[in-house]
Amino acid sequence: xxxxxxxxxxxxxxxxNQLLVEIQEIQRNEPAISIESLKxxxxxxxxxxxxxxxxxxxxxISKDDLKKQTEFYDNEIALVTGxxxxxxxxxxxxxxxxxxxxxxxxxxxxMVGLDTNETAILR
Length: 123
What we know:
By secondary structure, the chain is mainly alpha-helical. The protein has helices spanning 2-10, 12-29, 35-57, 63-112, 119-122.
């Protein structure tokens, strides 16, 4: 135990650097999707859907055409909403992974202050 604790103390900087590299790797491999751009896309689709309704009210398109168009927009909105939910899941996973790695960094930093000759540590 004494050897391991002393090894961690001596290797602290390298261990912390490796954990930071892992954080960067996580963020690089699974970039989170911007939710704001997806929300803007939903707003745009909703606006288009309202325009289609206006076209039907002005007798420029038929009710059947309106029905098809609104179904299309509803499907697109559902897809984008699904992407928002998936992005939130990825963000939650990233947060859990990062929190875990930060916890390891904290534990390594705690080791620096330990006295390896203390018998309470060995218990």
